[in-house]
Design a protein that fits this description.
- The protein is built from two helices and eight strands.
- The chain has 95 residues and is an alpha+beta fold.
- β6 and β7 form a beta hairpin.
- The radius of gyration is 12 Å and the shape is globular.
């Protein structure tokens, strides 16, 4: 896995998983739900070269999730608490 972390257009962090397989993404999703207390909310939307997944929501913040041809699977923050979480997750998965 070769994840990248960057500031997105909304001014908050986005964690791109790039070439991570679908099985790897499912593993991360399961960890977020089972070990970190997130729940899935919203409805997925499918497109030709992109998908919007259900969001990951916890008590403090929500992370948007999706997949596209350029980023692979990704998580997107919309607040400072989400930025802190994504920075820590990036540090964990890129170590």
């Amino acid at each position: 896995m070769n994840p990248t972390l960057h500031k997105a257009a909304n001014g908050h962090l986005a964690l791109d998983f790039n070439e991570l397989s679908d099985a790897g993404w499912l593993s991360i999703a399961e960890e977020l739900i089972n070990l970190r207390g997130f729940k899935r909310v919203g409805s997925p939307v499918m497109g030709m070269s992109e998908q919007i997944h259900q969001d990951f929501q916890c008590a403090e913040f929500t992370l948007s999730a999706g997949w596209d041809n350029w980023s692979g699977h990704y998580l997107l923050s919309d607040c400072v608490a989400g930025d802190v979480f994504l920075q820590r997750l990036f540090d964990q998965v890129s170590a």
